[in-house]
Write a structure and sequence with these properties.
Length: 280
């Protein structure tokens, strides 16, 4: 059986030398050649060894770079079919622990909050559930968010907070939610007064019409498929004058931005890296 060439997605922010980039581009052309049945390391090294403009030191740099910074692409359909499997859950736990924790905390004792990132199935389609905050509440009215809220004194931990608030806001019983893990917390305000922690949970098949919504807190509930959220045509970034960028997700009825978009970015990075790559 003829093996297909391996394709790699290279991260654009790697601080590599000019020699390394030249070697990388030549490697990409080599692996994308349809006439090559096998892209073995020895074949690649022999090819570079005969080249006068790419020294062997650059080949070694590329070899280490490939193992550390690249993600091998897979069939998107296969990734979606197995997205809620036990193997996917274990992989999610490993990847989520490697996410970078970015903190703007300025308070010694900030208020604690938690949200649930609800993974669900809508007519068998892997999706993510969102809420549209009611116009009757004081903060973030009319914005897209995940179900959640401030921690109560009776809550044992952030998971308990996320499950309680989700049940109160949209009627999803905690017994029907399988917790996958916790993502890095972030301050919800620039002054660092509130620290919000995203909790990822799988809720199984959901019928939106049967949810019990708290109209005082939630205006509407909607879902977006994982495939649409990973589509490069629906993903953008907003650059602020302070020098940082934040993700924005379009393609649906509501724009997903702010802290919700960051939490979603974290979740998709750990859940489906094959589909949700930084370059695409």
């Amino acid at each position: 059986m003829i093996a297909r060439p391996q394709k790699y997605i290279f991260t654009p922010w790697c601080k590599a030398s000019k020699q390394m980039w030249n070697c990388q581009r030549k490697y990409a052309r080599y692996t994308s050649n349809a006439n090559q049945s096998v892209t073995s390391k020895n074949q690649w090294i022999n090819t570079c060894d005969k080249s006068t403009d790419i020294p062997m030191s650059a080949v070694g740099m590329l070899s280490r770079f490939t193992r550390k910074y690249t993600t091998r692409t897979t069939n998107p359909q296969v990734a979606l079919e197995s997205i809620f499997s036990d193997a996917s859950r274990e992989s999610f736990k490993i990847r989520s622990k490697k996410l970078v924790h970015v903190s703007r905390l300025k308070h010694d004792n900030p208020k604690r909050a938690a949200v649930l990132v609800p993974l669900c199935l809508i007519n068998g389609e892997p999706s993510v559930l969102f809420t549209l905050r009611s116009n009757q509440i004081y903060s973030h009215r009319g914005e897209v968010s995940f179900p959640g809220g401030m921690r109560d004194s009776s809550d044992t931990d952030v998971i308990d907070t996320a499950l309680r608030e989700t049940e109160e806001e949209v009627g999803l019983a905690r017994d029907n939610i399988n917790i996958w893990g916790i993502l890095p917390p972030l301050t919800s305000r620039l002054d660092g007064a509130t620290m919000a922690t995203p909790v990822v949970g799988a809720c199984g098949e959901i019928d939106l019409a049967k949810l019990t919504i708290s109209r005082k807190e939630v205006e509407a509930v909607f879902t977006r498929t994982v495939a649409s959220l990973c589509d490069p045509e629906h993903r953008f970034h907003t650059r602020f004058r302070a020098g940082y960028t934040m993700p924005v997700f379009l393609g649906g009825e509501y724009r997903i931005w702010g802290l919700t978009a960051i939490f979603l970015h974290y979740a998709l990075t750990a859940l489906v890296p094959e589909l949700y790559s930084r370059k695409s």
